[in-house]
Amino acid sequence: MHSKWELFNCRSVLLSLLLVLSGCGVLDRQSMPYDEWRVGFFAPDYMEVWIETADVVDVNNLVFRRSGSGSVGLRYPRAFNNGVPQVFKGNPKGWPERPGWGAGKYVAGAALPGLIYVRWQSMVEPQTYEAYIKIPASTREIMRKGEKIYCAPYGKWITDYRKAIVIGLAPGGIAKTWVTGPCLESIEVSRTQATVDPRGPYEGKSNGHYRPLTDISKAYVEKFGIPYESW
Length: 231
Known about the structure:
InterPro entries: DUF2931. The protein is of the alpha+beta class. It has helices spanning 4-20, 137-144, 215-224; strands at residues 38-42, 49-58, 63-71, 103-106, 113-122, 127-134, 146-151, 156-161, 164-170, 174-180, 187-193, 195-196. It has one domain (4-230).
C-alpha cells in the first residue's frame, strides 16, 4: 500500500512534467526520421554515480518509466581494476570535448523527448539529486536534421542523425546535456542544476545508505578532493 505522501508526490511529479510540455506545438508532433532514439549517461572520472531512475516524457505526453537506471559510463576507475593505483591516470575536472554515448538504451515506442527526469546518487559526496531536464523544440530540430558525412566505421558516405541524448552527471547536482550521432560531432544543448532530494537514497527506503563507492574513487577524493567549480 502506498502512503498518502507517496501518492501525492507521484501526482505532483507527473503534473509538473505535463505542465512543462503544455507549450509543445504541431511541428513537435511530426514523425522523427528514425525508429527510436537513445538516452545515455556518464560521469567525470572517479565521480561515481548510480541512477535510481530516468523517466522520459515524449512530445505526446507519454511517460516512459525507467528509461535509464544503474551505473553510468565512466572512464576511471575501469572495470575489474583491483587495488588503489600509485598514479591516478584519470582527470575529473571539466567535461570531455567529445563525450561518448554513455551507458543507456534506446527508448522504444517514444516520440522525440520533451522532458527527462533523473534521480541519482552522487556516491562521492554522498548526495541524492533529482533534475527535470527540459528538451526544447530547438534541440528536437537538431535531432531531426540529417547530415551527409563520410562515416569511417561504415567506410562510406551516409546521412547521419543526432539521435542520441547524452547526459553528464557531476557532483553538486550538475546535469550537462548533448545530442550526438554515430558519426557526427556532439552538440552541447543545456546545463541543468538539480535539486537535492530530501528523502535521500532510494526515496528514503534505505535508511540513508548509499551505494558503496569503490576504493579507487574513495582514495582519489581523499587525496585530491572534488573539483566542484569545474563543471
